[in-house]
Design a protein that fits this description.
The complex is a heterodimer. By secondary structure, chain A is an alpha/beta fold. In chain A, the strands form three sheets. A seven-stranded parallel β-sheet of chain A has the order 10-11-9-8-12-13-14, with helices on both faces. Chain A has a four-stranded parallel β-sheet with strand order 4-3-5-6, with helices on both faces. Chain A is built from 13 helices and 14 strands. Chain B is mostly beta strands. Helices cover 0% and strands 33% of the residues of chain B. In chain B, the strands form four sheets. A three-stranded mixed β-sheet of chain B has the order 1-3-4, with no helix packed on it. Chain B has a three-stranded antiparallel β-sheet with strand order 2-5-8, with no helix packed on it. A three-stranded antiparallel β-sheet of chain B has the order 6-7-9, with no helix packed on it. Classes of the chains: A alpha/beta, B mainly beta. The A-B interface holds A 159-161, 163-164, 193-195, 198, 220, 223-224, 228-229, 231, 233, 236-239, 241-245, 248-249, 314, 332-334, 351-352 and B 8, 10, 18-22, 43-47, 61-62, 64-67, 79-81, 84-94, 100, 103.
Chain lengths: 407, 108
Amino acid sequence: MNAPLPIPQLSGYLRADGRKGIRNIVVVAYMVECAHHVARQMVNAFPGQPVHLIGFTGCFPNDYADQVMRRLLTHPNVGAVLLVSLGCEGFNKYGLGTAVADSDRPVHTITIQENAGTRPSVKSGVEWIGWALEHLAQQPKVPMALGELVIATICGGSDSTSGITANPAVGVAFDTLIDAGCACIFEETGELVGCEYHMQRRAVTPILGQAIVDTVAKAARYYTIMGHGSFSPGNADGGLTTQEEKSLGAYAKSGSSPIVGILKPGDQPAGAGLYLLDVVPDGEPRFGFPNVSDNAEIVELISCGAHLTLFTTGRGSVVGSAISPVIKVCANPLTYSRMADDMDINAGKILGGEASLAEVGAEIVDAVLRVAAGEASCSEDLGHQEFVLTYKQFTPVGPGCFPLRAA
Amino acid sequence: MTIASTVLLMSPEDNCVIAPTALRAGTAVLIDGTPLLLNQDIAIGHKLARVALAVGDKVLRYGAIIGSVTQPIAAGEHIHTHNLASDYIPTYTLGQDGHHFLAKDSAP
């Protein structure tokens, strides 16, 4: 039984699609690595202001990257968009610009080759961002219900304490948030190898349960072909021995709510409940590892509409993210004592008997409410705005996967 | 005389226990009421055998299988990549020399 929530006083920025943002940022997106430096120079002119840099490095187009970029640039936390193109790359900047304009957001494209090179392009970009910030500053906030929040979770730099403290504490928080009407998303089927039959039993329909088993089998096969599981040397240093041991600990983040659907990157949850995000590409392995680093997964969670991400770590990750705040839940009390500035929550105190899982779960919910209300998380305050978007390929989820509501 | 350290049992059916804090070689841990002497330092979160385990036994944590035993393990002994392997995907680790190697090939 979860403790009743206090009535949160949330407010957000209303978007044309009805969703509300907890931040109102200007995103500067480079369309190819060749435009990265110019875009970064623009962003660097606004230190401490809500101007975030994202982009795609490759010159070749990719349907997945196009879809994820559209979802990111029309994410409720985004107020205005500046696209920075070199001019000859393959990314569909025209379609992207139209999609953002259709969402009623200010959008502008600067093409470096048509704008006399680096210096004039940076100057034009800085002028436009300055205008956009003034425009966004005038936008009023409107009341927002807790249930309008989409909350994601990820673990990174896991160790053996992750599955004992931070991950189950996030699971407690997820149960509370889902009861309050939130959509919550957990992920990385490659880190759920060994948990597939347990997850199957939590699915709201048999067809969804089978789809969960299939998606984990896909992940196990994909990683086996790649030659490495989703397991880093630091995981082993931290006392995790096998992929399935790491998986069981990671799985605890999902809490105990029924699983109502499977998402793929860019899919939006259809309502309250717990969703599994499948980040492993479909088809034969083609472009490399499914999750080159934690931020690639965080970006995919944000592409599914996540307003903020609960990030559990045992070894001590410091990352945040562009677009949506990251709240750090530290599993290991020794890590917390070394890296307290980077950590929002000390879940490691559970090991010493200083707090219960329920108490730390409640602390996490409280942190969600405060960050949703505008308070900066530790990684936000430190200026972390990491971003990774790679090449991938996906086929749409099957009819039984999405969307389904819990009974 | 030092008091034996307590350990964490994640689930009643588990055959491993967890060090809730860093443990020192030469000190004792209390496993199911029996004090056992540690012959090496054990880092926080690492696993110890709750009972003696034979090659091929499944190790259970959280009441679930986390892999198969590859070397005989005495009660109270450290369980890690030198004596436990995944039933799914091999574990790679990074040596001090910068060489990635399959964990089961590493020295205990």
